[in-house]
Structures are given as structure tokens and as C-alpha cells.
Amino acid sequence: MQIARLIVISGPSGAGKGTLIRRVLPLFSNLMLSVSATTRRRRAGEREGVEYHFLAREEFLRRVEAGLFLEWAEYGENLYGTPADFVAAALGAGNDVLLEIELVGARQVMQHCPDAVGIFIAPPSMEVLEGRLRARNTETEEDIARRLAHAAEELDALHRDRGAVGPYFAYAIVNDDVEQAAEELRAVIEELRITDVAR
Fold this sequence. Notes:
Number of helices: 7
Order of helices and strands: EHEEEHEEHEHEHHEH
Strand content: 15-25%
Helix content: 40-55%
Number of domains: 1
CATH superfamily: P-loop containing nucleotide triphosphate hydrolases
CATH class: Alpha Beta
Distance between the termini: 8 Å
Structural class: alpha/beta
């Protein structure tokens, strides 16, 4: 019997987490993506409840006070969080759940959910990461500089904590080639599901 698994996918903004998840998600039955909540402004083409649940800051903080998030963190001037009720319901129904979250939130989840598995998605270099952020054409120079500084801090912290992936991540995937990285992510998820059936 397969055990429902919480899979935490993290990495710097621009590493390609969302792209890889979109490629892998349709390949598995009973695998669901938890949609995070955020206070950041909606980008062109983003839909409520699909990419994010977009909330006013006051509403987000009300939900924090009510304990409605599995994890939450402030990134730049925006708040991000994972709705606890969705994750609990999906796991309770026997589905594996993917969380696409930043490093602070990933650490919170891994501390509170020791059976969760962490996968870190890394860019091949800071130069490539900067190019990806610029190619989005959705952020100011200040936003890009802040995201790059934050990414450098995250990567440095991971290397200090434990080699290339840090203590919270069982796997690391360098997203240099999208097809190859998506295949690596698919293989990791497949391995986790086979291991769970064997338990």
C-alpha cells in the first residue's frame, strides 16, 4: 500500500521550480500541487487559485493568527504561506502532495513534518539565474537585485549547513537543461513512490 507523502520542492526564485513541476505533475496519478497564498501583486496571466491564492496583507496576517498555514514567511515585502487545510485533506485522501516553497518555509515544513522529503532545485550559476529573472520581464531592477542577493544567501547557507543540499534536502537537482532536470525530478518522485509501496 502506498503511503501519502509530502514532497517539498525549494530553490531560489528563477531556478525553474514551477517549470519542472508543471512538466512532472501530469505524469503521476494521486500527486497534487498545493497552491500557496501570497500578498504579492498578480503577474500578467496568473489566475487566482491556480498559480497562487492572492490575499491582501491584512487577510494573510489574520490567517497566520488563526493558525491556517502549515508554514509562512516574508520574502522581500511580500508574505507567502501554505494553506494547512488543503495539505491535510489531500494527504488524508491518500494523495502525495508537492509544495513549491522558498527555503525559509521549506525549513519550517521539514522541522514540523519529519517524514516530508526535500528536493532542492538549483540554477547552474548565478549568471543563468539573473538571465532567467530578467527574461520574465515582470520585476524591477530593485526586485531582481533583491532576488539575486537572497538566492546567493540561500545557496551559501545550504553549502555551510551540509555540502551542496543542506540538512533538509535529500535530493538536489541542477536545472541547467529543463528536459534533463524534469526527468531527474520524475525519477526522484517515482523512487519515493516505489519506496513507499515497499514499506
